[in-house]
Amino acid sequence: MTGLAFFDTLCIGLQKVVVLYNDPSGRINRKKENKVDLTFLIVMGIYLVLMMVIGVLDFRRKENFTEYAVAGRRQGTLTVVMTLLATVLGASTTIGITDTVYSIGFPGIWWLAFGALGLFLQSVFLSEKVRNIGADTLPHLAEIAVGKAASKLLAGLIVISWIGVIAGQIVAMHSLISFATGNSSKWLLILISAIVILYTMLGGQLSVVKTDKVQLIVILLGIVLCCGWLYISTEGAASAAMDQVTLFNESYTGWNLLNQFFIIGGVYFLGPDILSRNFLSRDGKTARRSAWMAGLILAVFALFITLIGVWAKIYVSPEELAGQKTLMYIIGILPKWIGVLLSLGLLSAILSSTDTCVINAATILSRDILGKKNVLVVRISVLILGAAAVLIAVLGSGNIISILTGAYSIYTPGVIFPLLTAILAYKKRKIRRGIWLAAVIAGGCFGLTGTFLGTWLQSIGLPSGVVSNLSLIGMGVSLVLSLISVRRKSL
Fold first, then answer.
1. How far apart are CA 242 and CA 360, in angstroms?
2. H-helix or E-strand containing 430?
3. φ/ψ (deg, to 5) at 350
4. Measured CA angle at 358 (ends 356, 360), to 5 deg
5. C-alpha–C-alpha distance, residues 348 and 345, integer Å
6. pLDDT digit string (tens) for 213-269?
7. Which of 16, 41, 56, 113 is most buried per CB count within 10 Å?
8. Quick one: CA dihedral 25, 31, 32, 37, positive or negative?
9. Is the model's pLDDT at 31 over the cut of 60?
10. Structure pTM?
11. Do residues 283 and 131 make contact, with C-beta atoms less than 8 angstroms apart?
């Protein structure tokens, strides 16, 4: 029996037991009502207070740059796996993925599938080697392998890109808050964002690691219980979902697959937030094991979150959704206790990714751009970058996937292949620094142009097929230049 066939049989059997919230036809009563409201707001308030308490307690502890920025480099496998997954499972992998699946169907799973693949490849080729180099940040790694100029260039590119990534998490937070409160108050968003930024500024990486463990458990419980309830409580849902399983359709072609493999998979393979968990590992073997285990869990999570989106695509009409985020709608039709748990899980996902992104980008700004290995400077950087991300989120369009993809489209073409080349060549080959820097600049410029000047380029006659794939073209140019930059180490 295949896995999906077993899932179908299991759901049919459990449907005979579960009767609450079912209508006579055996389908969930999809009358939309907010079952979270005050309960969620109370839980969210307590949650944020606890985060602040942890931050204040850690703030009072005397700590050096290594303790604050990379949690002392002494974390074991379980801690690294949990904090890595908590970092990965953010707005894009929850709210964003279900919206994407609702739009294009089951092929929306590819985002997380490539994420899991990126972690597997990192485990095999990079994790142990990167950890053993002993860098604090990704630009610091480039500095060790290539030189100071490489560090400055990568740091600038990462910080600019990651402001967009942080903004994407804040947009997701706005969606959750709007659902829970019944209005889209931007002042409330700003207030809650300020609390998150302040907690991150106070606690640093050690506090992030502590809270990630609890946040991950809540995320996984919320998503698994939500998916299970939807399919158990809806007669024939598993069979209907099986009919939707296809890896390609008219909305997702092989070209989309190729593009996403490099753009999204590349970030999971060699992204600053992913590798930041590598840097805090106890040793190289811990880093390698952690990436592999996290990839396995992420692959399973991908199926659960995709099935939630598929259920919504089958049973929720666009009129019922009325422009609302898919997961927000689903929360409203779940039993209250599951709805509250899922809401708290989504909040945990957003916060765990936001604080990691902010502290990592701030560390890079302080250490690699300003040249200051100083905790106070990192804290000030957290405030600056957090404020910039909030401004983008408040003034932006609100599409999580588009914001994150835009940020990745700048980072990935400019960084992945040059940095991979430098890591693999470290202590084995010499790098022609000028050509290597040109590879980063060329890739980043292609991504930047495609992301922000695409409409203008089409207006002056550049084919849309070229414009929409400038990031991929940039990766190709960057790869060629990176390979040319490598020369044999002199004796």
1. 40
2. strand 429-431
3. -65, -45
4. 65
5. 5
6. 888 999 999 999 999 999 999 999 999 999 999 988 888 888 888 878 887 888 899
7. 113
8. negative
9. no
10. 0.82
11. yes
